[in-house]
Amino acid sequence: MIRVVDEWAEKANRSDVVAQVGASTYSPKRLTVYAQLAIDEFKKFVEQAEVVVAHAGMGSIITALELGKPIIIMPRLASLGEHRNDHQLATAAHMAAQKLINVAHNQEELLSLLDKVGPLEGVHRANPHASPELLNTVKSFIQRVDHRERRKATVFNKLSSVLNKIA
To answer: What is the DSSP annotation of 85-105?
Structure first.
């Protein structure tokens, strides 16, 4: 993926492309590369980006969505030895079905999406806070569990009391 983005940047005469490359041994010609970025550094680059290109990791996807940035996802594939299984395909399919991301399944699709950087649709910023409905559902669940636990504790205390009297 890094090689493809670098070749695209060369062809498009772009010198503003930044990449977090991990342990890649490829030496880009046009990209500014970082082996690893701290979360706050990564977020600053995403804030400045026209588009985010990433594998289907949830951290990258959520950051782009929170900042309202269009994102192109190229899932890592187990068949190419890029990951231990194909869970990123499932992530990409789920997010694409909701029209939240752009997915490239191969180099040609990635290049095609990169060529559309300007008109790629961004998404509305995702709310980084839980919705009131979710909070109410979680609160209700906790209250039900707490009520059950208190009932269990009451039964346990009564049983302990009876056993202590017998002993």
So the answer is: S-HHHHHHHHHHHTT--EE-S
What confidence score (pLDDT) does residue 130 get? 64
Task: Name the residue type at position 35.
Answer: A
Q: What is the CA radius of gyration of the chain?
A: 24
CA-CA-CA-CA torsion sign (8, 54, 127, 49): negative
Is residue 88 within 8 A of residue 96, CB to CB? The reply is: no
DSSP 43-91: HHHHHH-S-EEE-S-HHHHHHHHHTT--EEE----GGGTSSSS-HHHHH
Cβ distance 15 to 30 under 8 Å?
Answer: yes
Angle, CA 22 vertex, CA 118 and CA 50 arms, to 5°: 15
Q: What is the pLDDT of residues 136-154, one digit of tens each?
A: 777 777 777 777 777 777 7
DSSP 8-state code for residue 117: T
**66: CB partners within 8 A, 6+ apart:** 125, 126, 128
Banded model confidence at residue 41, pLDDT cuts 50, 70, 90 = very high
pLDDT at 127: 60
